[in-house]
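Summary of Year 1 activities. Much of the first year was spent building the evaluation harness for sequence design. The harness presents a backbone, in tokenized form, and records the residue chosen at every position. We chose the following record to illustrate the format because it has been used consistently in internal testing since the harness was completed.
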């Protein structure tokens, strides 16, 4: 009795015969065992992998004149690598707003040279993880509903890419 082969069986048989004839393996392409790979097929040297820290959120609730609200900023590491080194975040508040504490992380402190708030994260940040900054903010009592305090800015400084900074602006609405 003669058995008929379907198209997939014929292709598999052909691949096996071709592999035997050329000395290659069925599961991969390239030279047979014992032969060096051509230059174009050799494994590339491991590339240096960096973190990619970004400010993905900088939100603050509206506030009444003279009131207090909280800035919440979220920093993420979009990878492909993690940063083992610590990183820094600065918060520049708009004119008419003052940071009043307590802050998160609790090591945030005013940078007297730049009128900013400086926060340090000493443990680095794994890939696809986030870190938060929370800053209670008081606004001046002489403001009026409908005013907006502009030019707030949250910036992260990535130790793996010191030439690049990522920032996100924010504004405080007075209600």
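For this record, the design step produced the sequence shown next.
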């Amino acid at each position: 009795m003669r058995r008929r082969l379907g198209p997939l069986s014929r292709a598999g048989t052909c691949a096996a015969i071709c592999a035997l004839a050329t000395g290659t393996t069925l599961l991969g392409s390239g030279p047979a065992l014992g032969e060096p790979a051509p230059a174009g097929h050799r494994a590339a040297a491991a590339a240096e992998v960096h973190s990619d820290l970004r400010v993905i959120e900088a939100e603050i609730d509206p506030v009444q004149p003279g009131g207090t609200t909280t800035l919440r900023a979220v920093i993420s590491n979009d990878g492909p690598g993690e940063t083992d080194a610590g990183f820094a975040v600065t918060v520049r508040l708009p004119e008419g707003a003052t940071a009043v504490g307590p802050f998160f992380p609790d090591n945030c402190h005013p940078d007297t040279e730049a009128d900013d708030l400086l926060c340090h994260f000493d443990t680095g940040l794994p890939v696809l993880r986030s870190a938060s900054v929370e800053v209670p903010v008081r606004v001046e009592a002489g403001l009026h509903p409908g005013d907006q305090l502009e030019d707030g800015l949250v910036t992260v400084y990535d130790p793996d890419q010191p030439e690049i900074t990522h920032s996100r602006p924010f504004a405080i609405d007075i209600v």
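The chain has two domains: 7-38, 53-173. Quantitative recovery figures across the full test set are reported in Table 2.
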